[in-house]
Design a protein that fits this description.
113 residues; alpha+beta; 3 helices; two-stranded antiparallel ribbon; 19% strand
Length: 113
């Protein structure tokens, strides 16, 4: 979890942004595109979180223009998968992997040429 998401400011902004996004989804017929994958997030069918269009670690602000719905892994009542992955968490995993891989390369002292 990033420092941005640990901050009290994000924990107070996120619920407010979620309310506004829910209203936007209802006004748009019950769905908006996922910020990460582009597939529709359907209100009432998919679980979702507030996600950044531009990551907070890269200067993205917690403003309505920079956020949107992002899929969460979700199942129906019978246990069948409705949405197979957490779109919001794969970006953080990629950033973490990049840091780890960079440190490994530095530790091995492999020249880039």
């Amino acid at each position: 979890m990033s420092q941005h998401h640990r901050a009290q400011q994000w924990s107070t902004h996120s619920p407010k942004l979620r309310e506004k996004l829910t209203a936007m989804m209802r006004a748009a017929g019950g769905a908006l595109p996922c910020v990460e994958c582009g597939h529709p997030v359907i209100l009432g069918l998919h679980k979702w979180q507030v996600g950044h269009r531009r990551d907070a670690s890269r200067g993205g602000a917690a403003k309505l223009a920079n956020v949107g719905p992002v899929h969460c892994k979700s199942f129906d009542q019978s246990g069948r998968t409705v949405w197979p992955r957490n779109c919001n968490q794969k970006a953080g995993g990629k950033l973490g992997a990049a840091v780890t891989n960079r440190r490994r390369r530095q530790a091995q002292d492999i020249r880039p040429w």
